[in-house]
Amino acid sequence: MFAVVEIQGKQYKLSPKDTIRVEKLPNKVGDKVSFDTVLLISDDKKTTIGTPILDGHSVKTKVLEHGRGEKVIVFKKKRRKGYQVKRGHRQEYTTLQVDKIS
Q: Terminal CA-to-CA distance of the chain, rounded, Å?
């Protein structure tokens, strides 16, 4: 069984007991989070597709941790102009564990 869920504008394919990283959520570690924007649910027998979302379905998750990803270096240069810019970025994320698809 799996479901396709939209979380903060991005779509994720989730199964029970999966762990995923999403952009940082405001919830605390250990909180239960439910996502109601289910786009598709499939089990062994049939697949149900929403138009655009399925009513009455949700995915229940638990917040495992918050963190920051690997550093990404952005370097810009224009030759012969003396222009150089070096910037770094670390994206914050939240790790979720899928408890139940209902």
A: 11
